[in-house]
Amino acid sequence: MNFFILSTLLLCWENLESFKNNAVSLEKVTLDYKYNHFTPIRTPSKKILFIDIDDQSLSQLGESLGPWPWSRDIIANTISYFQKDNPKIILLDLVLSENDKSAPEKDRTLAELVKQYSNISLAINFENYEITKKQRQPASQVPFSINIDHYKLTNSSRYQSFSKPFTELWESANLIHAINFSKDGDGLYRFLPLFFEYQGQIFPALTLQAVSNTLEKPRFLLNKNNLEIYDNEILKHNIRLDENLNFQLHYYENKNDFEKIPFHNLYQSIIDKKDTKHFFKDKIIILGSSASVLQDLKPTPVEKDYPGALLHGTAISNILTEDYLIYTPSYFKFLISLFFILLIYLTFTLSSNIFIKNTMPLIYMAFYTFLSFYLFKNYEIQTPLATPLLFGFLSYGDGLAYLTMVEARQRKKIMGTLTKYLSPQISDQLLEQGIDPTAEVGYKKELSILFSDVRDFASISETIKPEQVVAMLNFYLAKMTEIVFINKGTLDKFIGDSIMSFWGAPVEDQQHAFHCVLTGLTMKYRLIEINKYFSQNFNMSFQIGIGINTGEVIVGNIGSDQRLDYTVIGDNVNLASRLEGLTKKYGLEIIIGERTFQLVQSKILCRPVDLVQVKGKKVIIQIYEPLCLKSKASKRDFDLVDRYSTALELYRIGNFQEALKMFSSLDQDFNDNPSRIMKDRCLILLAKNTDDWTGIFKFTSK
């Protein structure tokens, strides 16, 4: 199929930049969906504490502290309160760039406090405004650059300058960190940089500063796309970065799971001189804001307004707890996409079942989607989803087009063959199931076979015109074939005026015997209507005989290379034909065999007719006449069966005198052909020597 080849070529093209970018964007969308609906249940590190200057804090403290920015002594008192417990590090997520001109002494207080403690890190923000070279602040003004082994400096001018705290505070700094973010092409924040290059030097982001301060002697090494952090030459953290050396955030289910103290609550504790009870000991404290007016809310895949400080907190927690999203190798996307193409191709080409062709590709993709979500939710494994599904649906669409354009022709051809011996409904059912009887080889199976024959048709055809013969026969065969199809039968063939049909193949039918006998009874009743039509139009009528037998036969396509017919052969087929011949002997319209009777006796009222041995057969069989459905049988019908059965038993044991009386009574009461025949037979047997009587009547002619 052409498109499967095209799909494979497209997969190779996926490595081209434009297509790759689109595929990456789609994968990001599916990953966003996973985070929104299937976020793995985890809790952030308890070492991280977010002091939140939120909207409520600005509102409640606004009356006493005034509008933001607050006096520097508020920040100083807060830091002093923390330092009672010796926290691991205090990170400001605020750039205090403006002097407090109304209270410069408070600026000095904060600066002296920052200088006093080595665990306070101040924020800077790299900027990219259009400025002249002279306006650029030299890197020498940014203390505390770091070294990353094996990192090749690009000497790029991505950032033109940076904003920093007011001069006195800046000169007192012991640690600094950058609080810049990078957003994705669609405006969402899915990653953040861990370090920044500025004028040939490298500076840590808030996240990296926090992590490195948990170590005694940190050293950084870039190993391909992995940032390795050592402490005293022992590898402590191995952080996976993307192709742009950004850290991919692994979001938590709820941002409220982070330990957080609203600033107004903390401030009240400071005012009340409340004992900290060592709560802040060894904590990584981030002083930031979720207040809307301070504009540090970021749109993320999990929430529209996510505090920037908690994005840093998420990254810090991911690294400290080694809580990383596990990504499959880059080649996995290619392999699984190719696997989908091949699997769907094989499904469409190897399966003959249309239902399987239509549904299995969807099941494959649904299963892979479920597996992808399951691995994400339970094992934090990110498998590519969008690209494999894209190629899966492309291949599936091509497969459907193949079915529509190519298999439609084949279906039409097969349908034309099937409808010669099956109803259109059954033919459709077989094709939907992918069963093609025209391709079947022979196999053995128990079926029910029906033979019907118009009696003395040769004599009838001699008395009317040929065109009338054809018209009558076509009308009759059409009506009878309709009954066969209605009752799920398979039309084997027309043999002149005879009809051969069977039940149980190619469509599986657990009630094949019942449907076969029901067809015979319906033919018997329908013949009354047919004869009315014949009487009015041709001034004559038909009489038919029907033989039904059930047994194991060989079914399949039989014939020559030039012509094959789907048919049945075997002794049980021949016996059905012989039973049809016996209908003339007993003056009946339908006779069924013993196995058929066993299968239908619970639903159809039958009477035993005789125990016989047909010509050319050694097997002795009990033959029956089906009268009607038991649910529709009258008292008279049951009376006939009971009395005939009693008479037949007397006949079999050789009590011909009593049997004669009962058969005579039945003939008189029911005008019953079998009773009349058995009555005559009793008279003959009474006149003979019957010492060797076995109860079996042997036919010497067909």
Main attributes of the structure:
Alpha-Beta Plaits, rod-shaped, 45% helix, alpha/beta, 7-stranded mixed beta sheet
Q: Mind telling me the C-alpha Rg? A: 47 Å
- Structure annotation, total helices: 21
Query: Spans of 5+ residues with little confidence (pLDDT < 50)?
Result: 131-135
Hey, roughly how much beta strand do the residues contain? 15-25%
What does this protein structure show overall?
With 702 residues, this protein is an alpha/beta fold. The chain has 3 domains: 2-19 and 327-416, no CATH class; 43-322, no CATH class; 421-600, Alpha-Beta Plaits, CATH 3.30.70. The chain is built from 21 helices and 28 strands. Strands 1, 2, 3, 5, 6, 14 and 15 form a 7-stranded mixed β-sheet that branches. Strands 20, 21, 22, 23, 24 and 25 form a 6-stranded mixed β-sheet that branches. Helix 1 (2-13) runs antiparallel to helix 10, helix 10 runs antiparallel to helix 11 (354-379) and helix 11 (354-379) runs antiparallel to helix 12.
SSE blueprint and pairings:
Layout: H1 2-13, H2 17-37, E1 48-52, H3 55-65, H4 72-83, E2 89-92, H5 104-116, E3 120-127, E4 148-149, E5 161-163, H6 167-171, E6 175-178, E7 191-193, E8 195-198, E9 201-204, H7 206-212, E10 218-223, E11 226-231, E12 234-240, E13 246-248, E14 259-262, H8 263-271, E15 284-288, E16 297-298, E17 306-307, H9 308-320, E18 326-327, H10 330-350, H11 354-379, E19 381-382, H12 386-418, H13 424-432, E20 443-454, H14 457-463, H15 466-486, E21 490-495, E22 498-503, H16 512-537, E23 544-559, E24 564-569, H17 571-586, E25 590-592, H18 594-600, E26 604-613, E27 621-629, H19 635-652, H20 656-670, H21 673-686, E28 697-698
Parallel strand pairs: 1-14, 1-15, 2-3, 2-15, 3-6, 4-10, 18-19, 23-25, 26-28
Antiparallel strand pairs: 3-5, 7-13, 8-9, 10-11, 11-12, 16-17, 20-22, 20-23, 21-22, 23-24, 26-27
